[in-house]
Design brief:
about 180 residues, alpha+beta, two-stranded antiparallel sheet, two-stranded antiparallel ribbon, 5 helices, about 45% helix
């Protein structure tokens, strides 16, 4: 234990010395540039030969190449079947069109709920922050719960959650009753 502390202290001192040396060298370079600039202030170089370019600059050269495009996510070789039924390609295309879920936003929403209480259930989080991305957001909350060890995901407890899914349309889902708690 103490040898780890000594190694950490030695490493910290070495890094501080390296950073101090780099800072000192940077200050010396800045001082030299300032002195040279002050020396040239009274007699600037002629404008004719100050900067010579081999040709005229191309204004839009950075736009001449194509923008990066991601490669195709994957290829399916052959027929995909599940339980002796053919795969529904329409459903596959709908899955490919799903939005990217912002797990950081979901984690922040859980933290906001935990400001007022020691623990909060997923159903309470969903009441305060109704899902914007549908059932995918519920999966995101499950990911948050599984990534942080202080949260509890029961395998046998569920809750029915109702919310407005659109104008004049409500939905009811049965979701795992995840228990989010503050970090100890």
């Amino acid at each position: 234990m103490r040898s780890n502390e000594r190694m950490a202290a030695t490493l910290r001192r070495a890094l501080e010395n390296a950073a101090t040396g780099e800072d000192r060298r940077l200050r010396e370079l800045i001082r030299q540039i300032q002195q040279l600039a002050l020396a040239c202030r009274t007699s600037p170089p002629p404008e004719d030969g100050f900067c010579d370019l081999a040709g005229s600059p191309d204004l839009f050269t950075s736009f001449s190449r194509a923008f990066w495009q991601p490669d195709v996510a994957g290829h399916v070789a052959g027929d995909l079947t599940f339980a002796s039924q053919a795969l529904d390609w329409e459903m596959v295309n709908r899955f490919r069109g799903l939005v990217d879920l912002n797990v950081g936003r979901l984690r922040d929403q859980v933290r906001l709920c935990l400001v007022a209480a020691e623990s909060v259930l997923l159903s309470q989080v969903l009441e305060r922050f109704p899902p914007r991305e549908g059932i995918l957001e519920i999966v995101g909350y499950l990911v948050v719960a599984m990534q942080d060890s202080q949260h509890y995901v029961p395998g046998d407890q569920f809750a029915d959650v109702s919310f407005e899914a659109g104008p004049g349309r409500s939905e009811c889902w049965r979701v795992p009753e995840v228990l989010f708690t503050r970090a100890q």
